[in-house]
Specification:
Oligomer: single chain
Number of domains: 2
Largest sheet: none
Helix content: 55-70%
Strand content: under 5%
Order of helices and strands: HHHHHHHHHHHHHHHHH
Length: about 425
């Protein structure tokens, strides 16, 4: 039996996240917030899940470019592995820097900077959209002549190191501060303090920042504020991915002239006025509301995330033996669960409809797997009719069970005129 060993990355990262959490709690350091951690991990689960569908495509792109346009035909060797690592990190620096300086790229990278915590869970905040943009930069490597096998191998190593620099538990590392990107350097990068903005773009080596004038050391007497300069008022899985795109569209609508509209998409993020954040949040969002960690609502969400992690691990491990239709259903089910968790943390009343669609996805998957199509086609409409007939009773029971009195279902949590989306 051939399994996908990349699945081992899931328990590997989870173990280190848990270890950091218990060390921080033992030292009584307030480095973890339950809802922030759930939001962070949710983004990471989605990225790992969708990678199953796109990773092969990236390999094909690198292989095609190298065979069709490769200037050299490079063979693996110790020196060339080192050269490839340096080239990869150099391209990352410029991708990362431009992702902070161009609105189109910031729209996919902003998700990584939304958390107001800074710990190992933040390293999970990578989206599949960001992977597509980065591939555009790394496409230079096969054109130089590096084979796809070398590129994908080095990217695994290059992607592992940054996980360990997302922590507040590790202080400055002496001489390594002059060579590598350390946790100290990366804390500066994630800071919302004005003096720290747009600094330390490196991923493995800090030399590029020092060479191109974007280096800033961490000052011992400055308390770092993490997250965006204007904090995101949402735990919503969807909104975290889409909020800046929405703000950008709003800003473009109010920008006069086609040329100016186009320029806005390639301008710096601070060209999008913060008032558009307030407009989009007022139109689409219920503001986030902190709930005590010991409430049943949070336990319900935590168990969902835990089950998602287990299912993700098993899915990736045995992906070669899972039929395509089951892969599609598992993907849809997991994504609906992640959206569901964000909706519950924001106490959105429409979560019951989302639960219905999630249950429907699971039911269809079970029916297809263990029943004949004819039997399934007869039973499914009957279940839908039954659910529809008892919908109000089911809705009332679910909301009272999940929220346990934390929500007044007859009133809106937001101000008059705001959406319940």
């Amino acid at each position: 039996m051939k399994v996908n060993l990349l699945a081992l990355a899931v328990p590997f990262f989870v173990v280190f996240m848990a270890l950091e959490f218990f060390i921080a709690r033992h030292k009584k350091l307030p480095y973890f917030n339950l809802h922030h951690s759930i939001a962070n991990i949710s983004v990471g689960i989605a990225e790992r899940l969708l990678d199953v569908w796109v990773t092969g495509m990236f390999y094909f792109i690198y292989d095609y470019l190298q065979k069709k346009f490769g200037v050299f035909h490079i063979q693996p060797g110790i020196l060339l592995w080192i050269v490839l690592l340096l080239c990869t990190d150099f391209l990352w620096y410029w991708y990362h820097r431009l992702a902070h300086e161009i609105n189109l790229f910031w729209a996919v990278h902003v998700v990584h900077h939304q958390s107001e915590d800074f710990n190992y869970t933040v390293s999970a905040r990578i989206t599949v959209f960001q992977a597509f943009v980065r591939t555009g930069f790394w496409a230079v490597l096969p054109v130089i002549g590096f084979p796809a096998s070398m590129i994908t191998s080095i990217l695994l190593v290059h992607g592992l190191y940054p996980f360990f620099i997302h922590t507040r538990l590790i202080g400055k590392l002496g001489i390594l501060e002059y060579i590598l990107v350390t946790p100290s350097h990366h804390r500066v990068h994630h800071a919302a303090n004005e003096q720290y903005l747009d600094k330390n773009y490196g991923d493995v080596f800090i030399i590029w920042d020092k060479l191109f004038g974007t280096f800033q050391k961490e000052e011992d007497d400055v308390e770092i504020k993490y997250g965006l300069t204007t904090p995101l008022k949402s735990y919503s899985f969807l909104w975290q991915h889409l909020h800046f795109i929405t703000e950008l569209i709003y800003a473009a609508r109010e920008t006069k002239g086609c040329r100016n509209k186009i320029r806005l998409f390639f301008a710096r993020p601070d060209a999008v006025d913060h008032r558009f954040r307030k407009k989009t949040e007022a139109h689409y969002l219920v503001m986030k509301k902190d709930i005590d960690v010991d409430k049943p609502l949070n336990r319900y969400v935590v168990w969902q995330i835990a089950l998602c992690i287990v299912l993700l691990f098993v899915f990736i491990l045995f992906e070669r033996y899972v039929p395509t239709y089951q892969q599609v259903l598992i993907t849809i089910g997991l994504l609906l669960t992640l959206i569901n968790c964000g909706a519950i943390m924001e106490q959105k009343k429409w979560v019951v409809y989302l639960e219905f669609w999630r249950l429907l996805t699971v039911t269809i998957g079970v029916m297809i797997a263990y029943s004949s199509w004819w039997y399934s086609l007869l039973l499914l409409p009957a279940l839908v009719l039954l659910f529809t007939y008892y919908f109000e009773n089911i809705r009332s029971w679910y909301l009272n069970w999940a929220y346990v009195g934390d929500w007044d279902f007859n009133t809106s949590y937001v101000a008059e005129g705001q959406g319940d989306g």
